Amino acid sequence: MVLSIVVLISGGGSNLRALLEAAADANFPARIVAVGSDNDAPGLEHAEAFGVPSFTVVPTAFADRASWGDELLAQVEAWSPDLVVCAGFMRILPPRFVAALSPNLINTHPALLPAFPGAHAVRDALAAGVAETGVTVHIVDEGVDTGPVLVQRVVPILAGDTEFDLHERIKIVERDVIVSAVESIAERRIVLPEPARNRQHQENPS
pLDDT for 157-204, tens place per residue? Predict the structure, then answer.
């Protein structure tokens, strides 16, 4: 099975680039069908370079977060993806978006969850004085970095590390981990749970 993927980004798109490069190999079991963003992100240039369509849904163009989420969902669902990957997507997704796509909605996070959730994970790990942090790929739920963990990999914190230094080392690992996770999902070495809506239908057939 070749997995079809929509990737969501907010920034430079280094994880997106890693996925695009992996998917360019005919033997890789996934294809990126579209890339979405919440702003005119520089990472969209990677999609253009690989000939992948992109879309942008800017929150300030909508009356409220729910309306923005509904439009983002419509744009994603137009591509009928098997999996949606949040790769440096820096906004909390509204409940209707999550309910429609999870558990086929995953995120990369620069820490070993449940430690250091949120937008400042690298800074928080340094401030806590821990010896190691890392990368987590997890299913997105309605909380902030609270969904089930799929893959984790440790990154040591070195003496004298700045936030920038540590984050750059984490990014290198993160690129490898997200490509590996997507490959494992496509090859069913990682099996995502059945969506709740499917379970409910099986339990209460009409």
Answer: 999 999 999 999 999 999 999 999 999 999 999 999 987 655 444 445
Task: Report strand pairing: 105-109 vs 83-86.
Answer: parallel
Catalytic residues: 109
> CATH says 3-108+139-149+170-199 is which class?
alpha beta
Handedness of CA 172, 175, 179, 182 (dihedral sign): positive
Q: Which residues are annotated as a binding site?
A: 13-15, 65, 90-93, 107
> In the chain, how many H helices and how many E strands?
7, 7
Q: What pTM value is reported for the model?
A: 0.93
**DSSP secondary-structure letter at 136?**
E
Question: H/E/C letters for each residue in 29-96?
Answer: CEEEEEEEECCCCCCHHHHHHCCCCEEECCHHHCCCHHHHHHHHHHHHHCCCCCEEEECCCCCCCCHH
Domain limits, the chain: 3-108+139-149+170-199
The 8-class DSSP code of residue 120 comes to: T
Instruction: Give helix 14-23 / helix 163-186 axis angle, nearest 10°.
Output: 30
